[in-house]
Predict the 3D structure of the following.
Amino acid sequence: MPALSTGTGPDTGLYELLSVLPSQLQAHVESADDRSFLHTMFGERSLHSLVKIHEKLQHYEETCPAPVLDSAGALAQGLSEELQAKPLSAEVRELLKLLSKPHVKSLLSVHDTVAQKSYEPELPPLPDDIDDDEDSVKIIRLVKNKEPLGATIKRDERTGAIVIARIMRGGAADRSGLIHVGDELKEVNGIPVGDKKPEDIIRILAQSQGAITFKVVPGIQDEGLAKEPKVYLRALFDYNPEEDKAIPCREAGLAFRRGDVLQVVCQDDATWWQAKHEGDVNPRAGLIPSKHFQERRLALRRPMTNTQPQKISRKPSGFRRSFRLSRRDKKTNKSMYECKKSEQYDTADVPTYEEVAPYRKGHGAKHRLVILVGPTGVGLNEMKRKLLISDPQHFGVTIPHTSRTKRSQESDGVEYHFISKHLFETDIHNNKFIEHGEYKGNYYGTSVDSVRSVLAKNKVCLLDVQPHTLKHLRTAEFKPYVVFVKPPSIERLRETRKNAKIISGKDDKGSSKPFMEEDFQEMINAAQLMENQYGHLFEKVIVNDDLAAAFSELKLALRKVETETHWVPISWTHS
């Protein structure tokens, strides 16, 4: 495009230039729409106002404004003293009152600071008692506010010196850039620390207010450390540093709850990592136990807990009601549908952290598997029914397999997939079933392929399983979203379930009977056991106090799974 001739000199203002620009561009713009756009844009009043402001500020800057004097505060003080020696008229009294106001004094003080360009804090003079043969030292002065200084100390086992053990990322010490890991601490506020224990020094720091002066001998610094990549972990346990006797500094600890996502910023220490809550605007990191350290001490506590195998009975699903019996029925009948599991595997599975990454369902990707977990009678079946009725084209359920003979009114692939006992046993051997069991000599089970079949139809597969199967389903293929449905208080159960019925397995069609008091207590106990043992695998917890409200909460959660970003195990995003 040819150079534009504005017809203006080099001193012409920007505002004047913009006013003639549309006419100069006229010859180079072919489209009428483009010409209209240019006239509208350059004729915008807000743009003209901004340009005028810009020119005024530029002119003001070019005049090099300078303060008339840099001691307005002293002048005001002198004026006040001189006026008080004169007769106090009403005007003088008013002026003296005005000059004595703290806001006016502060304003004049700020004016003098800017006028004198005295922005840097006043540092204390260097000590006179530094020995000539003393190692090169740094005198550091930090102003302590309400937040911790963000550094921990330890005694070097080899030299006996007190050294900086770690610098908390984003803390006051880190932001100052003056203190580093490995620096030897000589004095705090003039108090020698060589003969003191680390906890005594921490006590001195805790009692200090305002500026704190450190004398340190710089350690050897490793400048070659590369910037660590961001690591995000989902916490699988609750942690309160105030209750942790092993933490080197409780004030530096980071508290979190199970399910919180943490950004780990430093893993230099094998025992204590530095982390902060994901999305937290506070730059200061805190200490958390490392994965290895937490696993080790949790494993040591396990022998103290009851690790005996405990069976969790479940109400039969309405869609698969011949699979399960209530505990009362087990007094006379064996469970129709009992999953095989390894209690030893569950006990050894110590939950600490899980590395996660953000995930959002892409266009054309299969839906995530939705798993409902809960105790017998809590309402899983009712919630699943309501989901299917609400949108049968969007939600689907698996069709179970059985080895029993097909009845005259049944169709293969509708109520069940009917297969031979030999083929069922072969599929069990080949791990093709998520759950399986035997009742009255016949096998029943839910196959992995039946889940794939629902997902292949671009439907959300709704699956309710016993909780110990969850870790076998947590794969990149299924990306399950696990919802735990728990009962309300026993008082609310008595109130809301007094006219309800519980399905029992007198036969494989199932029959129903009213809830008994023991059903309520069993439901609450089973829910507590599930949450204690498998709660770290639950992404959503819904209390089924009112079925309509619980269903609405579930429907909203499932909509968010499809439309919003969630944190999932990092291995699911690499497939």
Remarks:
- Residues 362-566 form a domain with the Rossmann fold fold (CATH 3.40.50.300).
- The longest strand covers residues 210-217.
- Residues 45-62 form the longest helix (18 residues).
- Residues 180 and 221 are 8 Å apart (CA to CA).
